[in-house]
Design a protein that fits this description.
- This protein has about 425 residues and is an all-alpha fold.
- It has one domain: MFS general substrate transporter like domains (Growth Hormone, Chain: A, Up-down Bundle), CATH 1.20.1250.20.
- It is built from 18 helices and no strands.
- The longest helix is centred in the middle third of the chain and has 31 residues.
- The radius of gyration is 21 Å and the shape is globular.
- It holds the Pfam family ATG22.
């Protein structure tokens, strides 16, 4: 296996760049900051968790609606980088704006958080689509997995700095409040994200595209309509998306709501931050390991392994009682969350037509984001109805099982999918 090229390394480094947002804003510091703000305003623990779930659902719904449309327009020459830049800027700027929101304004926090999520996830649509521009099909599993591995390694640095600042503020070693320390973490996130995206801007370029034509927006809708009309030709691709819809729902929900869930269980914020830091450390080598094992055993088999681990996580979460239990749960998640996301991205990239990659990654986004609506809503409603967050997490087990079953019908590569389509077509003619 040859060394990674400049384009591959620069692309992978964006995982390093945006990982600060993933851990500090999505998973750790912001949810704790928000929970503290909601508590000060007299909002109950179950309700504040539910409101966070509803906010995530709203943000993902907006992006899910825009994904295929923007993706189809971005297939034109030179457009992919422009869309990536817009959403990247939205994410970085709105993350920095969190610094200026007073802690007592918990509702405003959720509104700004929605903008950060739109920027972060919107940029990912086009970043993921760049995978087909920077490497070959044979190297996609390893490159994608290495990207996630770098992300977990990179996230530990700003996260560790943020944890240190927050803990020192709590112990009154530093001359400012815990709330101020959390805001410093938000600023660190924005700066880290912006600084380490520079290689992506310099060295990654769109190689596969649709030629520019008059009325690009109108013609983009026409191409999108044509794809939907000819959906039978992409049966395997959309079967994968359906499987992905179900299993990634559980993955995303557990990631985005883990700290809120831990808080409801009575685990201290300091313990949660330390647990999440160790989870990142564990996740890095396992993400890379998934990529290497996928080359030996195929990506599909390793996806089965990841889904199976998450089923165990859901079952264990139902019986969670102590901080030690949460440690065990977090380590289980760490072994598979990067691997399952990395191999899903590479699996899908192998199936898509290269010139229409953005259009299809728009669908990848819409299926992933609609899944992110269902999961948090399920946990939110269950938490409010039962008064117990564990029941909501346990219910996610059904989604993993459905995803695993559908995945069994998806071929490994686009060539296999075309052969499968041609065989069925020939059988029908005969």
């Amino acid at each position: 296996m040859k060394r990674f090229s400049k384009e591959e390394s620069s692309w992978m480094f964006y995982d390093w760049a945006n990982s600060a947002y993933s851990i500090i804003i999505t998973t750790a510091v912001f949810p704790l900051f928000y929970k503290a703000a909601a508590m000060k305003a007299g909002v109950s623990g179950a309700d504040s968790t539910a409101y966070l779930g509803y906010t995530i659902a709203i943000a993902t719904f907006i992006l899910a609606m825009l994904g295929p449309i923007l993706g189809t327009i971005a297939d034109y020459q030179g457009m992919k980088k422009k869309f990536f830049t817009f959403f990247f800027a939205l994410g970085v700027v709105s993350t920095a704006v969190l610094v200026f929101v007073p802690i007592q304004h918990w509702l405003l926090l959720l509104i700004i958080y929605t903008l950060t999520a739109l920027g972060f996830n919107g940029a990912l649509v086009f970043y993921d689509a760049f995978l087909i521009d920077i490497t070959t099909e044979e190297r996609m599993n390893r490159v994608s997995a290495r990207g996630f591995g770098l992300g977990y390694i990179g996230s530990t640095i700003p996260f560790l700095i943020s944890i240190a600042i927050i803990i020192l503020a709590q112990k009154e070693v530093l001359p400012f409040s815990t709330a101020a320390a959390s805001k410093i973490a938000f600023l660190i996130t924005a700066c880290w994200w912006a600084l380490f995206t520079i290689p992506m801007f310099k060295n990654v370029h769109q190689k596969y595209y649709v030629e520019q034509e008059p009325s690009p927006v109108r013609n983009s809708f026409k191409r999108l309509g044509k794809t939907l009309r000819e959906i039978k030709q992409y049966r395997s691709l959309f079967l994968f998306l359906l499987a992905y819809f179900f299993y990634i729902d559980g993955v995303g929900t557990i990631i985005s709501m883990s700290t809120a869930y831990g808080t409801d269980l009575g685990i201290s914020s300091t313990s949660l931050l330390i647990i999440l830091f160790v989870t990142q450390v564990v996740a890095a080598p396992f993400a890379i390991l998934y990529g290497r094992l996928a080359e030996k055993f195929t990506g599909k088999k390793m996806l089965y392994v990841g889904i199976a681990v998450y089923i165990i996580v859901c079952i264990y979460a139902y019986f969670l009682k102590t901080t030690l239990d949460f440690w065990i749960l977090a380590m289980l998640v760490g072994t598979s969350q990067g691997g399952i996301q990395a191999l899903s991205r590479a699996y899908f990239a192998k199936l898509v037509p290269k010139k229409n990659a953005n259009e299809f990654f728009g669908f990848y986004n819409i299926f992933g984001k609609f899944a992110s609506i269902l999961g948090p809503l399920l946990v939110a409603v269950t938490a409010q109805v039962s008064g117990n967050s564990s029941s909501g997490v346990f219910s996610l087990i059904l989604l993993f099982i459905i995803g695993m079953i559908i995945l069994a019908y998806v071929p490994e590569t686009r060539a296999d999918a075309i052969d499968q389509f041609d065989e069925k077509k020939q059988t029908k003619i005969t």
